[in-house]
Amino acid sequence: MDNNLSVEDLLKKEKKNSKKILMLSLVLLLLIVLAAIYSLFVGAARLEFSDLLRVVFQGERGMIYNIIWNIRLPAILTSLAAGMGLALAGAVMQSTLKNSLASPFTLGISHAAAFGAAFAIVVVEPENSTIFSFLDGVYLPALSAFLFSQLAVITVLTISARQQAGRETIVLAGIALSSLFTAGTTALEFFADDLELASVIYWTFGDPGRTNWNQFIVIVFVLLLTLFYFIYQGWNYGVLNSGDELAASLGVDSNRLRLIAMTVSSILTSVIISFVGVIGFIGLVTPHIIRKIAAGNQRQLFLNSALAGGLLLIIADNLARTLFRPIVLPVGVLTAFLGAPLFIYLIIKGRQF
């Protein structure tokens, strides 16, 4: 009888937790909508609600239309997609590596992708610094960013595969990779001409406001494919997170699954960075916030982390456009101010995953 009661209590607790997680997802969606609407009206130029109504219902064209349709709306939606992608990548890396400090930024993947883009601009195609746009027919910076991000992924996986490699070792390796690729980017800037230098600096200052509709579509396409894959494979990654021995007993190839996860996450990260530049700490901070509120299973963790990451980046972009109006700060500066203290806290706390 006591066993039956304990099982019933467990089922009730699980049902209550599921409702809490569902409520969290709905709240995040609502906050995203509200933050996105608010973002349309804030910036260097103040807009009124009547301006939006004239553009939407009366078909008014002109400066207001261009501000809404060609500047703010792409920036808002790109912030949403980029934040979702970076947070999803961070949640996946933390789960697969079982390391609470793992993220595209702390493992050096973001810096490797930025170096790859800079390498393509300065070395591969020095005569054309706008090749990052699909409208030019060639997308070498994205390809180069992906290849160098894969180099960082292979290095991290090689280190993590060592039997005695602890989580501190992996993070230290990521910091070393970040320093290495940052130094490489600085060296490229030193040898670049003015036009190339301006293009390289683009990658080091994360800013969703520089994107257009074509670039947004590419980010969303890769994001949706990645999100679908990790939600579809959520059970397998839940087993992997429980330990390699349990995964092997259930027929899950942990090494293969981990390699696919890191590869897919780095693809998503490199595509985002190719368009918006380096945005740090979103992938590190967001999964910890979701775990603190309601983690759930791996599918729920991945989905809610993505939603929360999109919300955080929209809010950060709002602050970047309003704190020193009319000057617009790179959003990567604000995310660094947000994430750096938490990163230091996690190191000092020594929190186990």
Notes on the structure:
The protein has 353 residues and is mainly α. It has a single domain, classed as Orthogonal Bundle (ABC transporter involved in vitamin B12 uptake, BtuC). Helix content is 76%, strand content 0%. It has 14 helices and no strands.
In short:
The chain is 76% helix and 0% strand. The chain has helices at 2-39, 49-57, 63-97, 109-124, 140-161, 167-191, 194-204, 213-232, 234-241, 244-249, 254-276, 282-294, 298-322, 331-349. The model is unreliable at 1-7 and 128-138 (pLDDT under 50).
What's the arrangement of secondary structure elements?
Layout: H1 2-39, H2 49-57, H3 63-97, H4 109-124, H5 140-161, H6 167-191, H7 194-204, H8 213-232, H9 234-241, H10 244-249, H11 254-276, H12 282-294, H13 298-322, H14 331-349
GO biological process, one term: siderophore-iron import into cell
Family: Belongs to the binding-protein-dependent transport system permease family. FecCD subfamily.
Transmembrane segments: 21-47, 67-93, 105-124, 139-159, 212-232, 259-282, 302-320, 327-348
